Amino acid sequence: MMAKLTIPEEELMSPGHMGCLGCGATQAMRYVLKAAGKRTILSIPACCWAVMPGVWPNTCLQVPELYTPFETTGASISGIRAALDALGQEDINVIGFAGDGGTADIGIQALSGTADREDDVLYIMYDNEAYMNTGIQRSGSTPLGTWTTTTPVGVKGDWEKSPKKNVTAIMAAHGIPYIATATTGYPEDLIRKVKKALSIKGTKFIQIFSPCPTGWKMDPALTVSITKEALSTRAFNLFEIENGVYRITMKPKKTPLKEYLMKQGRFRHMPDDLIAKVEAGLDTAYENLLHLEEFTQKKAGSSQ
Amino acid sequence: MVKELLTGNKATAYGAMLARAQVIPAYPITPQTTIVERIADLISEGRMEAKFVKVESEHSAMAAAVAACNTGARAFTATSSHGLALMHEVLMWAAGARTPVVVVNVNRAMGPPWSVWADHQDAMAERDTGIIQFWCENNQEILDTVIMAHKVAEDPDIMLPALINQDAFFLSHTSEPVDVPDQEMVDRFLPPFNPKEKLDVDDPKGFGSLVMPPQYMEFRAKMAKSMDMARDLIRKVDREWEELTGRSYGGMMDMYRCDDAEFILFGAGTMMSTAKDVVDDMRNEGRKVGIARLRILRPFPFEEVRYLADRVKAIGVMDRTYTFGQGGPLYNEVNAQLYNHTNPPFTKNYVIGVGGRDVIPRHIRSLFDDLEKVQENGYGEEGEIHWWGLLDGSTPKEEM
């Protein structure tokens, strides 16, 4: 008896990409394309994925891809959708595929515009928690306490001083119909969410937690298992927000944050009191999420 | 053909409508706002078929326009001064991506101090981006140029974006009788946009990916070649338009009574209309004067400048802005063409009308008088660059 395939067989990303060993972003791309299929146009700003498809004239991607300036992903996918509408081409997915810096920082204005206009596009933020393509500089998505090349430990302890920016909350404030988080360690969940997003009209946003062994100073062999620990420590949570209703899609049993942190060189300097502070912040955020889930589901149930 | 009383901004909107722009991402800025308002109306009234993307900035306007063009749609946008400056990065991108987006820029001063009045610094600062630059002196020319610019920019040999300049308020908000061409005639002149390469799910390709140094230089050389090829095409398109409408703008340069002129003033925009009027009066007085009006800044009309150089005693170059530390931009452009030219004429730079100061007939006459004088006697103490009409007394009071 054969196991039922839960992941589409079709490969739209060929071998031969230029990513690092254990790159989560390459897995994210592979799964997103499996979910989206061939009738997809990608827009990619400056980020690792501007380099990883390969040097001209080669590309490992088998869908049309438009490279675009760093801060323009939102505007770019809006322009593509407007052109497809003008040309009468309807059954095509338009997907922006940007990193965390390109989304949470430099690209947030254009993304906000796209969401505000309710343009029919899917925006993917692959989140490796720093500017990795430029060599590990902190971004808005870098967690509290992280070492990066611009938040060095040094002798003064100049590690990242603010918690990870809550981009899904920013997107939720736009009132778009579908927001989700996913991670490369759970491809079936990721693919289901991308497919669901593409079945909905309007602006959709998915944040994919994508490990970066190079930037995280981590053994590449851990690229899958570390995502499970990220979930169980609440360093990252899997949920979706559909028309304002929250649903946490995985609620693993809590494990100590320190175990997750000590597997990654970017956190190894963190003193215990800082770890406790970070852990308390993550626990509170998770509790808030549980409350949001309860409240929004109850409200949706009572209004039906 | 219908004559309508149109402001420069309305003429711009009509131009976009007649050119059948398909995607118009735009953001409002004074004094461009009535362009986007009129386009919104034309779409709302059902007179124009276009997707109007109400973006959150000029940077996004240009980025969305480039993406639309890459997808195969004709894209148009409009802006002014700070908006054009914000677009700067994406103007370069549009040129490198070979996306023929057409942008109308209402020339306005850059702040600070804040000013919304006519000044050419905004567009001059974009000379190196790889965008073709048209400069207009009246509202008819604006409407006609929007249509012509699409034809030039979208030519398979060119495939570069185009910028069309019109002076703030002097054109943007001033009504003039404008002949609005028939749609059917414009359709014959301007075929639908159909780029050879576009984002196509049935023929997937990457656009704008990473290249290594050996290739990058080749791409840039191709851009340079296309920009140079645009000169002949601009002349040809101008002739075609003349055959259809009876209107020519001189191809690469608008030369007015230059044939036997000894002294000419060279400059851009509406102040050159005033200058033409003064030249008529001075010709009646027997003065051998003429006007060369900038029509195309990029590619620069070097042949036309050298043609004039062979025939005149002196060229006075009027700049409605300044390149700080290096004279007026047009002065530099003209002089650059003359350095390797045999027996160049005398040149002098007049910085005038900056930030919307009026340029009136008396000023033009004074410039010709001054040009004749310094050609005869040399620059004197003030040198070759004169900021005309400053309050410090450097310009004779009766000439201000």
Structural overview:
The complex is a heterodimer of chains A (304) and B (400). Chain A has helices at residues 24-36, 48-51, 73-86, 100-105, 108-117, 167-173, 187-198, 213-216, 225-232, 257-262, 272-302; strands at 40-44, 65-67, 93-99, 121-127, 178-183, 203-209, 239-242, 245-248. Chain A is of the alpha/beta class and 304 residues long. Chain A has a single domain, classed as Thiamin diphosphate (ThDP)-binding fold, Pyr/PP domains (Rossmann fold, 3-Layer(aba) Sandwich), CATH 3.40.50.970. In chain A, strands 2-1-3-4-6-5-7-8 form an eight-stranded mixed β-sheet, with helices on both faces. In chain A, helix 3 (73-86) packs parallel to helix 5 (108-117). The longest helix of chain A is centred in the last third of the chain and has 31 residues, at 272-302. Chain A is globular. Chain A starts with 23 loop residues before the first helix and ends with a helix. The model of chain A has no long low-confidence stretch (mean pLDDT 97). Chain B is of the alpha/beta class and 400 residues long. Chain B folds into two domains: 2-245, Rossmann fold (3-Layer(aba) Sandwich), CATH 3.40.50.970; 254-399, Rossmann fold. Chain B has twelve helices and 16 strands. A six-stranded mixed β-sheet of chain B has the order 10-12-11-14-15-16, sandwiched between helices. In chain B, helix 9 links the parallel strand 11 and strand 12 (289-294). In chain B, helix 6 (139-153) crosses helix 8. In chain B, 54% of the residues are buried. The mean pLDDT of chain B is 97. Chains A and B meet through strand 1, strand 2, helix 3 and helix 5 of A and strand 3, helix 3, helix 4 and strand 9 of B.
